[in-house]
Amino acid sequence: MKKLLKILKYVLFSVLIIVLLGYGIVYFKMKMDSKANYKLLGEEAPTLSHSGYSYRDLNKNGKMDIYENPNANIDDRVNDLVGQMNVEEKAGSMFITMIGTTPDGEPMETPVLSTEPIALMMSFVLPSNSEMIARQKMNSFNILASLEADKMAKYNNSIQKMAERTRLGIPITIATDPRHGIENNPGSGLFTPAFSKWPSSFGLAATRDTLLVREFGDIARQEYNAVGIRLALHPMADLATEPRWGRASGTFGEDAYLSAMMTKAYVLGFQGDSLDQNSVACMTKHFSGGGPQEDGEDAHFPYGKNQVYPGDNFDYHVIPFTEGAFPANTAQIMPYYGIPIGQTSEDVAFGFNKDIIQGLLRDSLNFQGVVCTDWNIISDSKVGEARAWGVEKLSPKERVKKALDAGCDQFGGENAPELIVALVNEGLIDDGRLDVSVKRIMKDKFRLGLFDNPYVDEQKATQIAGQENFRSKGKIAQAKSMVLLKNEAILPLKEGTKIYAEGMLTPKFLNNSGILVKNPEDADVILKRISTPYDERSDYFLEQFFHQGRLYYSDEEKQDILDLISQKPSIVVANLERPAILTEIAETSSALFAEFGTSDEVLVDVLFGKKSPTGKLPFELPSSWEAVKNQKEDVPYDSKDPLYPYGHGLRY
Known about the structure:
The protein has 652 residues and is of the alpha/beta class. It is built from 20 helices and 18 strands. The chain has an 8-stranded parallel beta sheet.
């Protein structure tokens, strides 16, 4: 045994040395590359005056160009700028990918050792900020970090200063996935404590309150703007007609008309009636609806590449766009990964599909804004193969051409502008085709006011983001979103009720109105919070963040729940990422809630009647797994004998 321990210590020590050496090599190389990248940058843009107006001399030529003139017509500014751009600058503008920050809000130039797996991986996988800005000439990025507000603002200002030193001084557009949720799951949103906390899109839809949703968008807009985020990679206008789908919780449910109402209010909250310097632009996704995934499997993975329409219901999935996103003038659109099987002239994914992008989106629906592909459809990465479904046999360069020919403008999750440069140099893509897309991209930057002032007040950021008024509104929304499914005259609870609780992060909140006890036998009521069941998978890195597969609780999971709640009058609170099968739990419990991102503090207020649950289900709850398997992926509320129908919700 001693010999074995000695060998084990030696192996661990050797692995540690190898890891540290590898880190040192990568760190040194990136450090040297960073210095070389910074040498490519010029001077900062001076602020000059012309005819009584001040302007930023972004190309540092000592005179006011049209694109630098804050008072010039935006189309004229766009044309002037694009006319000065070379092929490399145009190509760089047509890519948007993730970008790294240090914990103190500086641009990530070297790997950062972190206990957070995502942060650690990204610091080794992602190129340095200077590599992408100075060398690859990119100017749109998807930020992943969740820092304090002043540090996020500091980061914005740092990379904007770097961008200012490029040849034409094109400012950075910082984009983000949703950041206002309660849960910490990178697959559905970026947990950001600095911001106010709201229910998921399911929860917003459950409120049926478009004014509240627009107010959420306006508050999120202010918090984003405070730290320099100007592009929201949301909302999801997809429909959750397939209950097994792992991204269902990002949607507004399975009803197209409810989704359209919510999508419209959401976009108007972020953008306002028109896009301007106070807006956050929305990239609404995923055209033309990414919900009807075959067997509910998500298209991030090869086994989920097919979207199917057994109910011949393709048009239904377009309604949230035509009656929601487009009337609200969403600035940008993102297609999904899936292949709409049998719906177009060739079975290729939406981003490569000319019938969908050019034919339906551009020509039929007259959308003239930016179309950005979903992430990583072109190149294999260090964390997985390209999601080039339907065009797997094409080379990365050929995939870029096919997506451009289909009508896309920008490539998400990629930093390979050299592919576009090669296509132009080889005569396979005309430079004028680049101009069409780059003008759309730049027009949004001008409308957002980034060319005139991309900087934010770092001190003010902490005063705006997460302010008490915003947090209070979020708590109101959390309560309104809760759906009371069942109540056998047990709710609301009376002051002083003795409660035994499981599944809460902060059970002490129960003492605000009741008495928390340590044993079920001492309780008047048992409270059990449960999550949505799913299959744990590990074949692909991202699977850990996508809760897919089964909607039923395993025998062991179910028995643990039933054994507890059968002891006393009980209240079960189910957090629904997807429509879980709650049949036996509903039969055994005295009261049953569905919630979509409700803190323990708000839950206690609802239980004791200080806040009222007024939510209605944005989907139906199936009664059995058999019913789930027999429903059609593209058809709403069609499972046999649902436990609770779409729209169900009690009050007290």
